[in-house]
Amino acid sequence: MILQVSAQMFLVILVGWLARRRGYLTAESTAALGRLVIDVTFPALIFTQVLKTMNQSLLLQQWYVPLLGAAYILAGQLVGSALAPWLAPKLQRPTVIFLVAMTNWTFLPLPICQALFGDAGTQAVLLMNIGAQTLLWTLCIWRLGRHAAERPKTMTLLLNPGLLATAASVLLVLADAPVTPWARAAGPADGLTLAARVLFDALGVVASLTVPLSMLVTGGQLAGALARGLRLSRPLWGVLIGRLLLTPVLLTAGLLAARHAGVVLAPVPLHVACLIAGMPAAVSCGAFCERFGGDTDLATQVVFTSTLVGLATLPVLELALHAVGV
After folding, report:
1. 304 to each of 11, 73, 250, 271, how far by Cα in Å?
2. C-beta of residue 22 within 8 angstroms of C-beta of residue 296
3. Which residues touch 272 (CB under 8 Å, ≥6 apart)?
4. If pLDDT is split at 50, 70 and 90, which confidence band does 189 have?
5. Is the dihedral of CA 306, 309, 315, 319 positive or negative?
6. How do residues 254-264 score in pLDDT, each as one tens digit?
7. Please, which pLDDT band fits residue 309 given cuts at 50, 70 and 90?
8. Which end of the chain is more exposed for a tag (fewer CB within 10 A), N or C?
9. What are the boundaries of each domain within the chain?
10. 279-290: b (≥16 Cβ within 10 Å) or e
């Protein structure tokens, strides 16, 4: 499963690379597509996923699972903060921290955890997405842009589409609002409900563009980085070590210590959180770095190489988790 999904990612990234080489994508159009992903398709994906897959009872019963999503982002932030001064000059350090923290928490984990744990694995991934999204749109982006020429303002971050989509969808589910049944295509459909479903389905089509567009943008950015001279730098190797090795070790050790201290954690969410902590960098990293003042070339290289190296490290991580009783 890991090989299959990673191969799909490589092929679509390759299409983006070829499109940039042939002139179908330019630096300007690649940047515009990245902004479209961040401001439109990504928020649409968050909103539709939560309303389709969550309900009030599930959120109340497994309230702590979104905190596990925040935990693997925080673990990456801590590892990145420790490594950055040793790996990169001052202006590049926020990018290093961001890339170590930005694991691929949806596209790769969903089919893998579905295969491992069935519906329980899928629910765990999507619940953790809530915590991860919240930290992405607050702490992660704030730290990424703190040395940028045009540093994002606090209110701009708090009112960005991604965070608003996360908050709105969670509040609708917790309030058991009347919109949630038609989001899941449940119940009778009168004229108003049918119109609402059509609008929601249209939003779902927009949401479905997120992953392919992110990979096309990554391919286009990779072509630009290659044209400027791609090299295996110290920051690149350091981010790979932090993202694929140190972050899952830190999170797993912390969660095992919490369990030993008496904190009750269900086995499936515990395993899923530790597995996601060791995933390759998210395919949207390049788009975020370009938008918020990070090092786009380094981000693109990290996405590409971490996905490649992850083919070897993820099976080892899965075996290690079983060995330590996670």
Report:
1. 11, 20, 24, 25
2. no
3. 68, 109, 113, 117, 121, 124, 125, 128
4. low
5. negative
6. 999 999 999 88
7. confident
8. N
9. 2-323
10. bbbbbbbbbbbb
Among residues 195, 161, 192, the alpha carbon closest in space to that of 47 is found at 161
Asked whether the beta carbons of 98 and 247 are under 8 A apart, the reply is: no
- Helix and strand tally (H, E) in the chain? 19, 0
The pTM of this model reads 0.82
Length of the chain: 326
- The answer to whether the beta carbons of residues 76 and 247 sit under 8 Å apart is yes
DSSP code at position 88: S
Q: What is the pLDDT of residues 28-40, one digit of tens each?
A: 888 888 889 888 9
User: Of 200, 125, 133, whose CA–CA distance to 166 is shortest?
Assistant: 133
Burial of 56 (0-12, 13-18, 19+ CB in 10 A): middle
- Map 226-272 to HEC letters: HHCCCCCCHHHHHHHHHHHHHHHHHHHHHHHHHHHCCCCCCHHHHHH
